Amino acid sequence: MALANHPPATADIVALKARAKSMRRHVLAMARGPGQGYVGQGLGISDVLAALYFHEMRWDPADLKAADRDRFLLSTGHYSIALWAALAEAGVIRLDELVTYGADDSRLEMSTLDTTPGVEMIGGSLGHGLGQAIGMALGLRLAKSPARIFCELSDGEMQEGSTWEAAMAAGHFSLDNLVALIDCNGIQADGPVVLDMEPVADKWRAFGFATQEIDGNDLAAVVAALEKARATDGKPHAIVLRTRPGQGVPTLLAREKAHFVHVELDEWDALIDELERTEADHG
Amino acid sequence: MAERAYTQAMGRDEATGGRTTIDAPFGKALVEIAVVRDDIVGLTADLGKYTDILPFRDAHPERFFNVGMAEQNLVAVAAGLARTGLVPFATTYGVFASRRAFDFIAIACAHSNLPVKIVAGLPGLTTGYGGTHQAIEDTGLMRLIPGLVVIDPCDATEIAAATKAAAAHPGPVYMRLLRGKVPVVFEPEGFDFTIGKARLVREGTDVGFVSTGFMTERALDAAEALEKRGISAGVLHVPTLKPFDTEAVAQFAGGVEHLVTAENHVVHGGLASLVAETLFDAGMTMRLTRIGLPDRYIECGSVPTLQKRYGLMMDDLVAAATGGRA
């Protein structure tokens, strides 16, 4: 069966921005329930997920297991809030389910488990994503499938040795059907990134990746970088995404760069109002 | 002065007794399976030569991936391959699989019940390279992972059969590997291997050996020696440590006076612990002697010297069965 979504020749950036804004709305709606969550990360990566799910990836929300689907791996399982927002926006998850985020027995777990539709791997034990992405890329290449693998990982996650074990192999196996999306938001569990990982792009280049470095909250730049990463010249692709945790909600953007954002009960209406008033361009 | 034995280079054979042997039974079985199943893929982490998987590489080079010395990635890549519908066999040494890649076996494979087969060389005391290479606690570690099948085969016949059973099993498997020239203990003709099933290989009424891995070969030899002394010894071979055949063990225990467990592994966490748990759960109280490795790291040396020093020989089993009167 043909997959529903094929990237058009030119992207409708205005429509994608509306998608990203809508996803941010979902992120806030989810976090409001428990009064907390990985809001900063979710808002920060919404533009990237909008570009993937509503432009670049060939997939079908009605056939999530299609053999030739492009796959998105969320290695940082705690960013689940962003994935649920994308899947809700695509109609895979009902909007009225979003309030269950993080609640007991909810499918919208605080960290991804692959029992929820649309989840391609169990994320959360950091350093797992890229290796599994390589296995998928090898398997799909063996099957002569046109499918591509998009694997998100984070700047903090680059401190896991297994990330580099995988990076070595991607170059060695010439996996040009693989795109590593490195979300550099500058935070990790203990606060601001605790080990200096710069220069990030140089590291990926040294491991054999065709590497681009862009503003991950500039949708047009994200779309252009993904388009460039379609090149099939025997090199895996890396896109270093400089993102801002809390993007789209100025108060959160300005707040201390925390791994896990706490919001006071009486703040939510104001934050949602901020998101609604913020032009996607200026978030 | 007695002749001094030396630590042997890697790649030695597993054959220890006078039995006939088969060369690389795992690799040969994998090739045989892959002829009819194009979903079988092979991986190694720079130990292809030492884990008998080269016959598969030579037969199906496009389906073989050497990821270099990177065991976490070995297992992660295998998980990814499995998610595209393939059935990966990933080889390395037991120490590296169980110690370095534990999180990947647990979370990337077993948590999703993916059909990844970990084939683990140098089980227990089959290498003289010391604690870094001797997988003395691997089956204990692996049996703690929910849903993971753990197999410690005895001989060439069982390795071939267990490889086929692993390929047919829909979930993850950790299988210990005997490599090189591997002895034939079980008659291959009509041999049946079922995951989770113990095998009564010798009946006996006085003492019962419950053994796994190559220790079953020694238990059979010990039972033979005991018979000459008028002691009736049975042998229950338990190749699958998880799921554990509690029914067969309890039944076997009920027919003897004294149980002796025998494993090429530390005596806690593995077979001996499983048998003790089984007896306790069944409300049985009886004499139990545990033969296996002590709770310590073991030095470098020649394998025969080490196996003698740490009590894995047939004589040690005879001594255990007779209460030390070997």
In brief:
By secondary structure, chain A is of the alpha/beta class.
Shape of chain B: globular
Number of helices of chain A: 9
Strand order of the largest sheet of chain A: 2-3-4-8-7
Q: Mind telling me the CATH class of chain A?
A: Alpha Beta
What structural category do the secondary elements of chain B indicate? alpha/beta
Number of domains of chain B: 2
Structural class of chain A: alpha/beta
Name of the CATH architecture of chain A: 3-Layer(aba) Sandwich
Mean pLDDT of chain B: 95
Portion in strands of chain B: 15-25%
Largest interface: A-B, 29 and 28 residues
- End-to-end distance of chain B: 26 Å
Query: Unreliable runs of chain A, pLDDT <50, ≥5 residues?
Result: none
Estimate what percentage of residues of chain A fall within beta strands: 5-15%
The biggest beta sheet of chain B reads:
7 strands, mixed
Topology diagram in text:
The complex is a heterodimer of chains A (283) and B (326).
Chain A: H1 13-32, E1 36-37, H2 39-56, E2 71-74, H3 80-89, H4 129-142, E3 149-154, H5 161-172, E4 178-184, E5 187-188, E6 191-192, H6 200-206, E7 210-215, H7 219-228, E8 237-242, H8 250-254, E9 261-262, H9 268-277
Parallel strand pairs in A: 2-3, 3-4, 4-8, 7-8
Antiparallel strand pairs in A: 1-9, 5-6
Helix pairs in contact in A: 1-2, 1-3, 1-9, 2-3, 2-7, 4-5
Chain B: E1 21-23, H1 25-36, E2 40-44, H2 54-59, E3 64-66, H3 71-83, E4 87-93, H4 94-100, H5 102-109, E5 117-121, H6 138-142, E6 149-151, H7 156-168, E7 173-176, E8 181-183, E9 199-202, E10 207-211, H8 215-228, E11 233-237, E12 240-242, H9 246-254, E13 258-266, H10 271-281, E14 287-293, H11 303-309, H12 314-321
Parallel strand pairs in B: 2-3, 2-4, 4-5, 5-7, 6-7, 10-11, 10-13, 13-14
Antiparallel strand pairs in B: 1-8, 6-12, 9-11
Helix pairs in contact in B: 1-7, 3-5, 8-12, 9-10
